[in-house]
Amino acid sequence: MVRTDVEQDGCERRMREAAAREGLGAHRGGHASSAPARDRGALRAGILAAVLTVAVAAALATDHGALAIVPGLSLALCGVALLGHLVFGGRTGDARLEQYEGGLVLHHKGRIRVVRYADTEVLDNTVRRSRYGRTLSVTYSFGLTDTEGRDLVVGSVFTGGETWGPLLRLDSARAQLPGALARLGAGERLDFGLMWLTAVELGSGRACAPWHRIQEVVVQEGTITIRAEGRRGPLLAVPTRLTPDVPLFLALTETFRAQSARPAPR
């Protein structure tokens, strides 16, 4: 679906109005649908499918029909990709993402939806592909909750993931941190999937350690690894996909580790 300039302007105006109503603060940037790029990919797949079809037909027309297996398998994969594009590709052409300090406004499938960072749970499903320690690509994807309490996914439907993905992590943690610190200061325990933390210690199940013994908190290859003084192996190693609000969790661990490293006042 291709929108006219008038429809585009009207959509962006309504998105700005929604952001103002929800008090999302300063505008971070806007990102269009990735549908045009996927259309180009589908065109290339179509051309490749045509070439493979000729190769399969030529192999079958000779006494070497077994040779048709290799291009035949590739042709089948192209067919699946093209079918997926035909079924789903046309549904995202009107997608747009506007990013603000306090949240997001999305236009998708004719609807405008708003996410406030202070009120949403952030499930980070980002996939990082690497080889020999070198990052090849990063596909950003986040499960969020809009202001109506409905779940949604912000991901590859939008261009510019390398921009809005890190900003979403930064701004969501910044928005949620004051409330989380207040709750911890009041003696509460916060749960992050399999892990939990208080103002005194960090743990999972019965395994825990006070903040002054936490030596390292790292995220690598989709796993949060926490090492503590006096232990040979990790204290915890938990997949990020099982951990809600990873950005907030990391901000809290950084805050409490920094506080525990300060010398006690005399």
End-to-end Cα distance, whole Å, is: 68 Å
Main beta sheet: strand number and arrangement?
4 strands, antiparallel
Helix-strand string: HEHHEEEEEEEEHEEEEEEEH
Count of extended strands = 16
Shape: flat
Strand content: 25-35%
Q: Determine the structural class based on helices, strands and strand pairing.
A: alpha+beta
Uncertain spans: 1-6, 36-43
Give me the Rg, rounded: 24 Å
Determine the fraction of residues in helical runs and give it as a percent range.
25-40%
Kindly state the mean pLDDT as a whole number? 82
Widest sheet: strand order? 1-2-3-4
Q: Please, how many helices?
A: 5
Please specify the SSE layout and strand pairing:
Elements: H1 5-22, E1 27-32, H2 35-60, H3 69-88, E2 96-100, E3 103-108, E4 111-116, E5 123-124, E6 127-131, E7 134-139, E8 142-145, E9 151-154, H4 161-185, E10 190-192, E11 195-197, E12 201-204, E13 207-210, E14 214-220, E15 223-228, E16 236-239, H5 246-261
Antiparallel strand pairs: 1-2, 2-3, 3-4, 5-8, 6-7, 8-9, 10-11, 11-12, 12-13, 14-15, 15-16
Transmembrane segments: 41-61, 67-88
Protein name: Integral membrane protein
Keywords: Membrane, Transmembrane, Transmembrane helix
Concise account of the structure shown:
The chain has helices spanning 5-22, 35-60, 69-88, 161-185, 246-261, and strands spanning 27-32, 96-100, 103-108, 111-116, 123-124, 127-131, 134-139, 142-145, 151-154, 190-192, 195-197, 201-204, 207-210, 214-220, 223-228, 236-239. By secondary structure, it is of the alpha+beta class.
Task: Spell out the key features of this protein.
alpha+beta; four-stranded antiparallel sheet
